[in-house]
């Protein structure tokens, strides 16, 4: 990984030593004998040594000498018989020991004096100190500092030399040189990278986890995909904190060097020799090395960094059981596999390394490609293509930037086309390390996701891959731990674009001919195979997805030779020739707008997912008819059935209820009929595993009163009724104990919601504007009940004034209720309903969109409500972030909006999830959480013109329930209202320095406490063919509710807008 930092900030990671050695001495004792020999020996060995040749010394040491001490890595203090009488020497010693606290190594040399005499301050040293006390009786504190410094110095490990000893002075000096050589090598700064970008925040976040001031033992993991910068961050942290430890060691390439026994032993010897400063130390066996490391290091406060660890065994070979470290020690482990850290036991903190953001990525790429922070003007668009292609991966930015440096625009364009089709070899090799460590089934899971299932729901993919005997519940977890894939908050599988390209390249390397590859996803390759009828039994999956609707003529029976085909996905393709054969081994058949009935010779016993929406001629009778094979009971593995908008499918056959494994059913145009036995729980009929039922867009009258019986759907979790003609939600729905999601958007006739199920977690009623106010109040109160804000069942007879004055705002509710029941880790809640007013129980409010507050060790329950005012006529994403103690911002929640003005968004996260972020931020008694609002505008067409901006902002925070209210108003019309509550002592409003903005700062009030950052809602002028007025993006304001806070947190709303 490569980052870039300014010269001013780089000092965090390099100490900037000018001298290797500073020597403190008394000249009249040692200058022309021992000291000159020592100085010459140090210079001969190449040590940059500072020695003060100025014989004229006063009472106080000069500023130049103080700077020389501060700028030295090691100080040698030569104690001699006349050292203590010199106040100059004693002042030097005090300064040296101050620098020791900042990491300087101090080596005392006792030249012909007894260390015990100095420690007890007897003999000549005692006499000298007594004289100082008489001489400066008015400054006894100074003498006490000298005494303390002498005692502390004699407690350090040093080098005594006496007259008459067997060791010659030459040999004594050589012993000192050897020790210094070893010590300097142990304190040498590691080279981090040529260019550093974005390193500061990442290093600081990791240092918070390490907390070097604490005296406990901490093992901290750095986890991330290959090339994301784990080693770079670890090196920067090492340079920054190594001086806080007695001994330190950075051990690189543990995985690679652990492949043989000899390599493991060399690693053990490296640790021992670096930390014990004995380059000749030898280890005879792995077991002996483990014992030696444990025995010799268990009493030393050390910093040990193990880089690129791939297996737990590699740790055990170096550290044994990892339970023997001395107090204050820190161990940092970088790895691609989180399981390595998990199996260590205990709850060791893990720092997840994220890719660079777009600004950081562009800067890093520019530094390698142009040797400047910004791309050259002629190359700007091409540079943006590279940044987009690399998707923030530092390794790729560095390699490609270096490759393109000095090349012409024509060469750039050619290289970019190559990269899109053929991954860079060096990048591929680095990323493929994690893939090569997988077992065969895990490799197949990864390749299937890379080729077909990126962006698809995890549960859906698990069902399909499980039928292929790939054991995905275990394998997908393994891929996540190895950073090969991720699972987002919505349960969708994802992976870095370069990992996706790597997986597809692995498949392409199977053969030059598409017909001989295991997976085909490229439209051109799929077209060739299907139109030329060149398929083979080597093909396991094929995706035929045209970029635009096309008509295709298939050659004969294109699937006849694909006996092992398991996944068939077709989109945007129309065919006019009916075919007679589909492989019976298909697990997934996804073909929207399929123009025919399924082939008569197709036997779908293995089918797990059948998705053929918008198929005009599709009839279930083709599958369920008696002569093929004798009924629906042969579809024993079907779990997903999607027949959305199949116009000829007016009724479902009764045998549909025999699909005992069905989990997802999407039949909006079909009428689900009830039969006398269909839902007989004792007979075994009914949808007893159905989790998702989708009637979205149904043109029929849905008999919900008959269907919505919890006995019919005992495990139903998601119900979709959007765009239907329902008038009321059945009362019986409240008895569905497993229902989590209810989607009722655009139900124009919906008027009433009696009561929702008690475990509902997601309600989307956008644009269902006919809902009566009583139903809306009831929904709001139930949201309060679910989150513990309001007592159970207060909604009946709810107050009419439950809503506040109309305004765009965000609300927040916090509680420190210690008696609340523990929540499930994924117990999140999100309601979206029509409305412009925030409930009164969000009793702290503001027009604006960010806030700060204090929390203690336990994060209180946090609930947010946003009221949206005028929104643009384009799709936009609103995001809420939290950032605690300066760590990277945490996405609290997000929502896509589509002209959803005058709506309320209420959301809450599990206490566990927010507490994890707090724990991750190295919490103390008082924790500050802040995050200013950022607004990103994303357009698939022309960009937003941000030249014409106007601001509108207010911020609010409080620490306890309000006793008094103070309203502060600014003379600037850009600030509409500021409301503040009691126990706040300081208010600081800091406007952004944005060109063209005239923002005033409100006067500070003595009754406030906390820092507040001005936020702006930006008005933008769209560029387009037609004239557009300025559009207000967001126009969101905040309202926050607090109870008993003891820390500071900022939550913010972020809007990301794009064209559709």
UniProtKB/TrEMBL annotation:
Gene3D superfamilies: Helical domain of apoptotic protease-activating factors, P-loop containing nucleotide triphosphate hydrolases, Ribonuclease Inhibitor, Toll/interleukin-1 receptor homology (TIR) domain. The keyword Repeat applies. Keywords: Leucine-rich repeat, NAD, Plant defense, Repeat. The keyword NAD applies. One of its GO terms (biological process) is defense response. Residues 17-184 form the TIR domain. InterPro entries: Apaf_helical (IPR042197), Disease_R_plants (IPR044974), LRR_dom_sf (IPR032675), NB-ARC (IPR002182), P-loop_NTPase (IPR027417), TIR_dom (IPR000157), Toll_tir_struct_dom_sf (IPR035897), WH_DNA-bd_sf (IPR036390). GO terms for molecular function: ADP binding. SUPFAM superfamilies: P-loop containing nucleoside triphosphate hydrolases, RNI-like, Toll/Interleukin receptor TIR domain, Winged helix' DNA-binding domain. This is TIR domain-containing protein. It comes from Lithocarpus litseifolius. The lineage of its organism: Eukaryota, Viridiplantae, Streptophyta, Embryophyta, Tracheophyta.
């Amino acid at each position: 990984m490569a980052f870039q930092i300014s010269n001013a900030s780089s000092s965090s990671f390099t100490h900037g030593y000018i001298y290797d050695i500073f020597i403190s001495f008394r000249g009249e004792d040692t200058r022309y004998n021992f000291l000159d020999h020592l100085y010459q020996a140090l210079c001969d060995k190449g040590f940059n040594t500072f020695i003060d040749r100025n014989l004229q010394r006063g009472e106080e040491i000069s500023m130049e000498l103080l700077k020389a001490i501060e700028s030295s890595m090691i100080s040698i203090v030569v104690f001699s018989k006349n050292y203590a009488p010199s106040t100059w020497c004693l002042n030097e010693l005090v300064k040296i020991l101050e620098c020791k606290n900042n990491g300087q190594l101090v080596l005392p040399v006792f030249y012909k004096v007894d260390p015990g005499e100095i420690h007890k301050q007897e003999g000549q040293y005692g006499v000298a100190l007594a004289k100082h006390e008489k001489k400066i009786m008015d400054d006894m504190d100074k003498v006490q500092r000298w005494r303390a410094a002498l005692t502390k110095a004699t407690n350090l490990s040093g080098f005594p030399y006496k007259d008459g000893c067997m060791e010659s002075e030459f040999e004594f000096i050589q012993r000192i040189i050897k020790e210094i050589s070893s010590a300097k090598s142990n304190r040498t700064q590691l080279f981090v990278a040529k260019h550093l970008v974005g390193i500061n925040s990442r290093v600081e976040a990791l240092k918070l986890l390490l907390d070097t001031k604490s005296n406990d033992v901490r093992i901290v993991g750095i986890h991330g995909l290959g090339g994301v910068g784990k080693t770079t961050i670890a090196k920067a942290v090492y340079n920054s904190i190594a001086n806080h430890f007695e001994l330190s060691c950075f051990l690189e390439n543990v995985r690679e060097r652990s492949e043989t026994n000899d390599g493991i032993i060399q690693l053990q010897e490296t640790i021992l020799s670096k930390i014990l400063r004995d380059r000749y130390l030898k280890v005879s066996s792995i077991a002996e090395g483990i014992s030696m490391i444990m025995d010799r290091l268990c009493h030393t406060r050390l910093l040990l960094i193990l880089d690129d660890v791939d297996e737990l065994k590699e740790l055990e070979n170096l550290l044994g059981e990892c339970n023997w470290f001395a107090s204050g020690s820190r161990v940092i482990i970088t790895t691609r596999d989180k399981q390595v850290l998990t199996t260590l036991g205990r709850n060791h903190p893990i720092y997840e390394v994220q890719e660079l953001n777009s600004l950081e990525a562009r800067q890093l790429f520019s530094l390698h490609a142009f040797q400047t922070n910004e791309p050259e003007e002629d190359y700007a668009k091409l540079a943006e293509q590279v940044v987009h292609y690399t998707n923030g991966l530092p390794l790729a930015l560095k390699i490609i930037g270096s490759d393109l440096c000095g090349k012409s625009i024509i060469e750039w364009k050619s290289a970019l086309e190559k990269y899109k089709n053929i991954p860079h070899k060096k990048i591929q090799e680095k990323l493929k390390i994690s893939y090569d460590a997988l077992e065969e089934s895990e490799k197949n899971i990864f390749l299937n996701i890379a080729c077909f299932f990126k962006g698809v729901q995890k549960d859906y993919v698990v069902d399909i891959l499980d039928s292929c005997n790939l054991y995905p519940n275990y394998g997908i977890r393994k891929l996540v731990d190895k950073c090969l894939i991720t699972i987002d908050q919505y349960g969708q599988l994802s992976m870095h674009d370069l990992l996706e390209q790597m997986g597809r390249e692995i498949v392409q390397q199977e053969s030059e001919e598409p017909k001989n590859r295991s997976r085909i996803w490229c439209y051109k390759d799929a077209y060739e195979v299907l139109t030329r009828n060149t398929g083979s039994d080597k093909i396991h999956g094929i995706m035929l997805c045209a970029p635009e609707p096309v008509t295709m003529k298939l050659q004969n029976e294109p699937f006849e030779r694909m006996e092992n085909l398991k996944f068939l996905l077709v989109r945007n393709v129309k065919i006019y020739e009916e075919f007679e054969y589909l492989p019976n081994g298909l697990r997934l058949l996804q073909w929207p707008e399929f123009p025919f009935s399924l082939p008569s010779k197709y036997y779908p016993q293995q089918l797990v997912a059948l998705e053929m929406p918008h198929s005009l001629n599709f009839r279930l009778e083709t599958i369920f008819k008696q002569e093929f094979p004798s009924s629906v009971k042969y579809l024993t593995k079907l779990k997903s059935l999607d027949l959305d908008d199949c116009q000829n499918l007016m009724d479902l056959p009764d045998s549909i209820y025999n699909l005992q494994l069905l989990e997802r059913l999407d039949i909006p145009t079909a009428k689900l009929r009830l039969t006398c036995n269909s839902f007989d729980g004792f007979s075994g009929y009914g949808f007893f595993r159905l989790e998702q039922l989708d009637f979205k867009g149904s043109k029929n009258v849905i008999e919900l009163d008959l269907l919505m019986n919890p006995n019919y759907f005992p495990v139903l979790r998601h119900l979709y009724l959007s765009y239907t003609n329902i008038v009321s939600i059945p009362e019986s729905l409240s008895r569905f104990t497993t229902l989590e999601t209810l989607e009722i958007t655009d139900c124009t006739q919906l008027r009433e919601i009696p009561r929702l199920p008690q475990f509902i977690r997601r309600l989307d009623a956008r644009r269902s504007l006919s809902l009566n106010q009583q139903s809306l109040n009831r929904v709001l109160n139930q949201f309060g009940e679910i989150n513990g804000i309001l007592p159970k069942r207060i909604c009946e007879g709810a107050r009419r004034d439950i809503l506040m004055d109309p305004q765009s705002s965000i609300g927040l509710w916090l509680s420190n209720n210690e008696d609340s029941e523990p929540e499930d880790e994924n117990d999140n809640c999100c309601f979206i309903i029509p409305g412009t007013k925030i409930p009164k129980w969000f009793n702290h409010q503001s027009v604006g969109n960010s806030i700060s507050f204090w929390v203690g060790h336990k994060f209180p329950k946090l609930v947010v409500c946003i009221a949206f005012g005028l929104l643009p006529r384009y799709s936009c994403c609103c995001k809420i972030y939290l950032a605690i103690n300066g760590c990277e911002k945490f996405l609290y929640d997000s929502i896509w909006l589509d002209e959803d003005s005058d709506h309320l968004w209420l959301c809450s996260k599990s206490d566990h999830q927010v507490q994890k972020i707090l724990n991750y931020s190295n919490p103390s008694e008082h924790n500050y959480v802040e995050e200013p609002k950022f607004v990103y505008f994303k357009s698939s067409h022309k960009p937003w013109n941000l030249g014409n901006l106007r601001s509108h902002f207010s911020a609010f925070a409080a620490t306890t329930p309000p006793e008094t209210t103070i309203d502060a108003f600014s003379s600037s019309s850009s600030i509409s209202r500021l409301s503040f509550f009691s126990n706040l002592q300081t208010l600081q409003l800091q406007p952004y320095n944005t060109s063209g903005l005239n923002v005033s700062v409100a006067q500070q009030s003595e009754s406030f406490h906390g820092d507040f950052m001005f936020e702006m809602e930006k008005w933008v002028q769209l560029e387009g063919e037609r004239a557009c007025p300025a559009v207000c993006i967001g126009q969101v304001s905040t309202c926050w509710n607090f109870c008993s806070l003891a820390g500071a947190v900022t939550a913010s709303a972020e809007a990301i807008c794009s064209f559709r």
